[in-house]
Amino acid sequence: MRIIIRNLFRRKLRTVLTVGGIVIGVFALTVMGAMSEKLSLLVKGGEEYYGTKVIVVDGQSSAFYGGAPMTIDKRPDIEKVKGVTYVTPEVSLMLDEETTMSFGMPAMIVSFDAGANQYESFEINVATGRMLTDEDRGKVLLGSDIADTMKTNVGQMIKLRKQDFEVVGIMEKTLTAPDNSAVVSLYDAQQFVHATLPDAFRENFPAEKIVSDFAVYLDDIEQGEAVAERINAEVEGVKAYGPSFFSDQIGQSLAIFNLIILSGALIALIVGGFSIMNTLTFSVIERTREIGIKKAVGARSGRILREFLLEAAVIGVIGGIVGIGFGALMAWGINESSRESGLLLFQLTPRLLAAVFIFSIVISVLAGFIPARRASKLNPVEALRYE
Amino acid sequence: MNNAIARTINLQKTYSPGKHNEVKALKGVSTEFNSGEFIGVIGPSGSGKSTFMHLLGTLDSPTSGDVEIGGKSLTKLSDNERADLRAKELGFIFQGFNLLSTLTAIENVMLAGDYAGLSPKTTCERAESLLKEVGLDERFDHTPAELSGGEQQRVAIARSLMNDGRLILADEPTGELDTKNSETIVQLLKDLVKRKQKTIVMVTHNENLTRFCDRVIKIVDGRLAS
Q1: Where are the transmembrane segments (chain B) (predicted)?
Q2: pTM for the complete prediction?
């Protein structure tokens, strides 16, 4: 290995430039991969949450979630539909009044319903403090990221949309949407939404009637699509989405998005691979006589092949480590700088880092294969004559 | 002869056969080399001496005829088997020393032990011992650029002995050395033949050095001259 490293650093500048090519590719793959991981985890969390229930929104709403508020009066009608176990009213709104668009999941205020807990399969546990109750007023249960962002802890007072709230608990990390949520009682959430309504509406639309949507728990998850159809048929003025809607629509869109951003990074790494091919090709030409000597002394072709492939792998290892280091630093830096706004774009996971590192080595070895094979196939007599 | 460790049988080598630039370098050389012999190969430039050495050293394949080393016919060996034969049975000493410039003297010698499949401990011990034997006790960690021509050739001699093979092929080993160094190197080879019972085949254009040899063969125009 010492000799391999020495061979690589015979031409220091060239090797540094080659490693640089891999570093750029690995850096891009790490940063883009971390973004993709974050989005994938959000989608996975969404699929787990929405995949077991039917979501009912206002009939005029065109959005799956976050559409126009609706009235809680629809709840009994939905409960009557065959196959429905429990209907929980949900109220949600963005924490930041100013936010209009966000890349990723914005920080949200969401309502709590103790009655739904026994049916909910998406498990949320409290890390410190206690769970919320329906009777709590002015109390909040925070997601782990939002608690970090607000630099608060159990027992402290915080402001949610200029209102004072006491933190009663902080949830365990889920790596998905709840991490960036502030959970309040349904009553408190309804007050928040009510305050946002135009004056003309506010008087005729009491706060306790407001819901953003209903989450419908099912007798049999397999019957989710059928129940959604029945709700659409039997309850007027609502739109019901079955368990597959989220993964069909959001999941697929994000899969395409992931593919696009990862492809860009992948191309960067492949270009880095070509720089390895170029470097090793020159190296083989320069070291033709040396290869001849090794063959004369008894090196098998496979041994020569292995030596050059190892050089390529070492470039991949060094490029991988440095690229991952820079990429992780960049992802961490951007996350920290945007933490104030509750927007965490990147998620560095062990599987991402391991995959990027292995990929960096694989690309390097593949790129090194052609020059390495050429070296191994050299005729020893011709190689010894090479000047 | 039962004592022969290598023999060539009607060895022929033609470069670019059938083309306008066809060259018949060897036109049927049959000879044999006995254990513990120091053989000089002489002949004018272009007579086929180096081609003969390359074929004898399994670095190239004959157009026809055969080379036998230790009773093994080279024409029946695969590339890997030839490499193994070179690693375990043969030693090479070249005119231009042919040491690896990035390795130290001891690393150059150890390389042959590594290819011969010796354990790292044996390789290291044997390399140290051989370098001492050729008078380079103080030069273990010097790179070729830090050694004189004579010293570099001593490293190459130590390398050729590393696998303890039976046949050492020296192609113009003194070609780049002055008269004094040339005689020292050839005397060193002669001593090795005696002490270690090696067979050395040495190509040289310096007929003066053949006085150290037990036997001299002459190649002229691709054939053995009487």
Answers
A1: none
A2: 0.73
